[in-house]
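Hi V.,

Quick status before I head out on leave. The structure for the redesign project is tokenized and pasted below; the design run finished overnight.
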């Protein structure tokens, strides 16, 4: 099984700014932990970060026919991007939306997601563990669909 983790804008600042809101783990540390978690389950994991909407769209297109599913924290694009939604629906890959913070306990503009209604599931509020839980959920979802 080949999976992709996507990180959107500003998440490269993790661990370096606003630790009270987003925690002390760096993006590199989160990716390393996810890669180890995936490997322990026999899953091959690629991780990609961009601050640019089009680059995220391009990476989603590249995953078509290669990856079995996507874990995505689209950052602020979660609340605005029809392009990322269209890309995810266009490649027809199952995806899980994750957020470090509990977006529903924050400003109203963070309560809406352009992705959530088409996600397999949404996890928010657990810091870096949101990614870990999202990865586990996606693997379980995909394994449940494998032929016996
Ligand atoms: O909680 C999340 O994971 C978010 O996707 C983070 C986004 C925010 O726009 C979403 O509403 C919720 C912001 C990412 C910014 O990351 C930073 C990390 C460290 C310092 C500053 C920003």
């Amino acid at each position: 099984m080949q999976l992709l983790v996507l990180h959107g804008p500003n998440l490269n600042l993790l661990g370096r700014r606003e630790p009270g809101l987003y925690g002390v783990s760096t993006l590199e540390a989160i990716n390393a932990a996810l890669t180890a978690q995936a490997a322990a389950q026999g899953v091959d994991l690629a991780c990609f970060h961009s601050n640019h909407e089009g680059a995220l769209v391009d990476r989603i297109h590249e995953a078509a026919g290669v990856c079995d599913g996507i874990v995505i924290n689209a950052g602020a694009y979660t609340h605005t991007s029809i392009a990322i939604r269209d890309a995810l629906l266009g490649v027809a890959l199952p995806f899980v939306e994750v957020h470090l913070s509990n977006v529903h306990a924050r400003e109203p503009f963070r309560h809406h997601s352009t992705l959530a209604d088409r996600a397999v599931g949404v996890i928010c509020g657990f810091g870096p563990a949101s990614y870990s839980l999202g990865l586990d959920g996606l693997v379980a979802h995909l394994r449940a669909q494998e032929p016996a």
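Above is the designed sequence. The beta strands are 2-7, 44-49, 69-73, 95-99, 121-124.

G. will cover questions while I'm gone.

Best,
W.
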